[in-house]
Amino acid sequence: MAVRDEILKAWNRAFGRVARKRDNPTDDEIMAAEREVLAKVPPLSIKESLTSNKEGTLQMQPSGRWAICRPGFDPIEITSGDVFRVEVPGEAGLRRTRMEHMHGEGYYSVNGYNLRDDLRAAIGAED
Asked: What pTM was computed for the model?
């Protein structure tokens, strides 16, 4: 998990430098932090790290975003446009969907899946 730790530390440092409000960053601040991290950590390492052992449970965060939560790890927030998989009651396995945001309504699954705390969920489009 050394790469994951390196990514999270780089993100926290970059985000701390560019975000005026940590709980409500602008898109420009997020992109600036992302550029900083990508300059320090190879993209392939980031993808491999974030997609390994990626299953956890869905939890609503104080930011109003959903996140994949796993014991011993920081939550990984799912933002608008992110692809993820989620448990759908009555169906086998995790179903692929994409997160979107509607002003005044919040975040939702484009497939209409009912998102709620404690559903099994995973980052990315594939197992």
From this structure: 0.57
